[in-house]
Design a protein that fits this description.
With 147 residues, the protein is mainly α. The protein has helices at 9-20, 22-33, 42-49, 51-57, 67-79, 86-91, 98-110, 117-122, 129-144. It folds into 2 domains: 1-80, no CATH class; 88-147, Leucine-rich Repeat Variant, CATH 1.25.10. The mean pLDDT is 95. InterPro entries: ARM-like (IPR011989), ARM-type_fold (IPR016024).
């Protein structure tokens, strides 16, 4: 089993940050969330997506421009948050793919991103139940934190 297959997303993110620092990881995640996949290295796609990242690089599921890399980018920010990503994670609440919206709400909740309160509050009426649930949790946590 390869290192990618045997590691969790959290472990891959930690290892990448240990190798290169958190700055490049954050910049790559922001680029993906802002629909600029050409600025992101193939290596980072594999770090973010694991074995499925390799499939995406081969063109599966829309390739680097598809929604999975955006889901993974948001998930990486769940594990390695940097406030520089606030605008990108807030804007991700409007993305067409529900998995991106759901993960954005989870990141906003986990890191109490107060600037995203209005955006995540709007997701409480999302057509997808999982997005609504994540948004409700985020609003509850943000309001409890005084955001």
């Amino acid at each position: 089993m390869s290192r990618v297959q045997s590691s969790t997303p959290k472990q891959r993110i930690a290892a990448e940050c240990a190798r290169h620092g958190p700055g490049p990881l954050t910049a790559g995640c922001v680029a993906l969330l802002e629909c600029r996949p050409r600025e992101v290295s193939d290596n980072l796609i594999v770090v973010l997506g694991g074995e499925h990242g390799r499939n995406v690089l081969d063109g599966a599921d829309g390739g680097k421009a598809g929604y999975w890399p955006r889901v993974w980018a948001a998930r990486a920010l769940l594990h390695q948050w940097d406030p520089v990503a606030t605008a990108a994670i807030t804007d991700a609440t409007h993305y067409e793919a529900w998995r991106v919206r759901e993960m954005a709400a989870k990141v906003i909740a986990a890191h109490r991103v107060g600037d995203a309160l209005d955006a995540v509050a709007a997701l409480r009426t999302d057509p997808v139940e999982r997005v609504r649930a994540a948004a409700s949790r985020a609003v509850t946590l943000l309001t409890a934190a005084g955001a």
